[in-house]
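Something for you to look into today, if you have time. Just paste the record in under my message, thanks.
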Amino acid sequence: MVLPNGGSKRLKGNALSLKIDQTDFWMDVTSCKVTNDDADSKVVTFYDAANGGGKAYTLEITAIQSLDPTSFWSYAWDNVGKTVPYVYAPKGVADAPTPDAPWFVGNVTIGAPPELGGDAGEDEEYTTDLKWKLDGKPTKVTSAAELATALGED
C-alpha cells in the first residue's frame, strides 16, 4: 500500500479540546496524552484481552496553575476522587468528530490534588502534572451519531 502525498498526516501539538465533565479546559493545558501500562491484575480473562484488557489507561496532563475559580487547576483541586466523563479531541474543537479528526471518550477518575507553587522568580509560571485513571481503553468516535451513542445520549 502506498500512502498518498508522501505519508500519513501527522498529529501536531497546535490544537486540542479536552472536555472534563462537559467543560473544555484546553486553554489551561500545555500537554495532554492518553497512555497505557500493564494492569496490576494477574488474571486477564478472554473478554478483558478482546477489549484492551490487561492494560491500565491513564490521562496524563500538564496544566498551568491558576487559582481562578473557573480554572482547570481549581476544578482538579475541588473534584478529587470523582469519576466524570471526558472527551479528548487531539486535533481540536470542531462541531463533531470525523474520520480524519476522531474524538476519544470515556470516564476518568480525578486523582490526587494538583501541585501548588514552584521555584522562585518574578517571571516564573507554575505548572502541575496530573495522571488520572481512565475507565478503560478510550472509545474512538468518528461521527456525531457515534458520539451520542458513546455518551449514552441516543
Q: What stands out?
A: The first strand starts at residue 17 and ends at 20.
